């Protein structure tokens, strides 16, 4: 469990993190989503004791990071995969981590296997690693102590689609075993495929938080069916609006589960069902990104913070 309470960080007159409060629960993957410069890394750095907050608090498993007796055994951290020592091999880096945490030597080979780094790759110096290999090594360093909590800053950076799927499965398995995962990204899609819960931050402030379903259901649904006109009529009979798009799909304000149920009851086969483009979370995130790019110092005015459990 991760608890962040009323956390703020000011650098001179600039507020990088502004009264941020959220929790990341065991058994769930929590996505921390925000455009570049939103305050994600600063929040994570405070969480692991690398930066002091101006006000507020951050706790892991009920304690401040500095109070954890053997932190690597309780919290796995990956903040910057490119910060690893370029002159060391992957195996040396993991061996050092294992020694620091008092782990058996066998944990190194086991963890290399878990992140799919081969013997040959583990023997190479890190300066010769691709970004994707560095991310795998960083994730290995986070996992080696068999912690209860994982904190990963942009872990999908540099991973190819197969790598992203691998990471998603790994984090899903970790959470299903009762672990707590907090991972950040500036890419909505990445968070959408991995996270159970989403916290959206912009200009240092939380602008929305909730389960993925809550946040994605906050806009319109987009559905394709063998007979879109019949799907439209079925939705209307059930009291929902339905608009046929030029590409032969249906847009409606009904939520995804309702559309699925109505299609099922009408005996219609859906070939696609998702949140409509330009609605809900995506629209909010695009506005947030545009606002952030215009002016880093202003608050994200004009955002509809009524989406999900908005703060
Ligand atoms: N040590 C510092 N001194 C001054 N400003 C800082 C410092 N560290 C971060 N900032 C500023 O705080 C803001 C938040 O930065 P942060 O790195 O937390 O954002 P982020 O959401 O992680 O972005 P990215 O996705 O680009 O990594 C940025 O405007 C950044 O320039």
Automatic annotation (TrEMBL):
UniProtKB keywords: ATP-binding, Nucleotide-binding, Transport
Asked if Isomerase is a keyword of the record, the answer is: no
* PROSITE patterns reported in the protein's UniProt record: ABC_TRANSPORTER_1, ABC_TRANSPORTER_2
Keyword Ligase (UniProt): no
Domain ABC transporter intervals: 2-228
What InterPro entries is this protein classified in?
Answer: AAA+_ATPase, ABC_transporter-like_ATP-bd, ABC_transporter-like_CS, P-loop_NTPase
Q: Which region ranges are annotated with the description Disordered?
A: 292-311
Pfam families linked to this entry? ABC_tran
Top-level division of the source organism's lineage: Bacteria
The cross-references to Gene3D superfamilies, in alphabetical order and at most eight, read: P-loop containing nucleotide triphosphate hydrolases (3.40.50.300)
For this UniProt entry, the molecular function terms from Gene Ontology, in alphabetical order, are: ATP binding; ATP hydrolysis activity
Alphabetized SUPFAM superfamilies for the sequence: P-loop containing nucleoside triphosphate hydrolases
Q: Which family does it belong to?
A: Belongs to the ABC transporter superfamily.
Q: What is this protein called?
A: ABC-2 type transport system ATP-binding protein
- The scientific name of the source species is Nocardioides albus
Organism classification, top ranks? Bacteria, Bacillati, Actinomycetota, Actinomycetes, Propionibacteriales
